[in-house]
DNA sequence: CGGTTAATTAGCTAGTCGGTAAAGTATGCC
DNA sequence: GGCATACTTTACCGACTAGCTAATTAACCG
């Protein structure tokens, strides 16, 4: 996968286990074992997923006694959402049913 | 990569070439050669990228004479954006700086 | 200290990804 | 038909990914 920030973030989101982990973290911080509990995969596999999420800046990790609590860091999702925002008009209106010429024309009118 | 729709869409977006192709298609339909022109990669590589985008439902392809014009289909981005929407509060407010207890408490108040 | 719990690292396998070159398919046009 | 244009498919390659088991590190507890 490419190394630019957006690619890393989208790449991190392209896995249901990682999205589920983020979902869990939306309810508050959790330890690695707590995060692993719902899944049928081993702890090392979870550890790898967490590293991917950390590289994407989607989680941060503390140190508390023998636990390493994870916490959600949603900031990178702002950039991802903003990137998608460019296309919002194409799914919120019926513009995507029109041909290019007409679309260009209408864009010029400020709608 | 997993096969659920959201994973396939995020996976398709996790590559800068594919995102650039979508960017080009936002200006209107284009043929494969037109899409390939800005890049330093071979046509087969572009063809593969297009197949990934098509599998994600992000483009559709027609047939006009000997050309196979591609057109943007932004609909899948709606689901992707909606998924991220769950986390909007975490980057639009300072909630993500507070601890879980406080966040839970404030959520109960409706903001 | 020794043992337990928490989590990461190392090393392996199988499969996917992004790219290539070369061959194949489809259509248009003389 | 025959040739050119526009892609696509096939076969291959090196790098990366997701999973495993086994071993290691780190911190607490008695």
TrEMBL record, chains A, B:
Domain of life of the organism encoding this protein: Bacteria
InterPro entries named in the record: ArsR-like_HTH (IPR011991), HTH_ArsR_DNA-bd_dom (IPR001845), WH-like_DNA-bd_sf (IPR036388), WH_DNA-bd_sf (IPR036390)
Positions of the HTH arsR-type domain: 1-92
Family matches, as Pfam families: HTH_20
Protein name: Transcriptional regulator
Native species: Paractinoplanes durhamensis
């Amino acid at each position: 996968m490419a190394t630019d920030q957006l690619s890393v973030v989208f790449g991190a989101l392209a896995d249901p286990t990682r999205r589920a982990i983020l979902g869990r973290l939306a309810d508050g911080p959790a330890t690695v074992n707590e995060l692993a509990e719902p899944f049928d995969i081993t702890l090392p596999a979870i550890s790898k997923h967490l590293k991917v999420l950390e590289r994407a800046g989607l989680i941060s990790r503390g140190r508390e006694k023998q636990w390493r609590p994870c916490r959600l860091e949603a900031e990178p999702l702002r950039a991802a959402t903003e990137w998608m925002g460019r296309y919002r008009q194409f799914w919120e209106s019926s513009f995507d049913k029109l041909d290019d010429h007409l679309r260009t024309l209408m864009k010029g009118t400020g709608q």
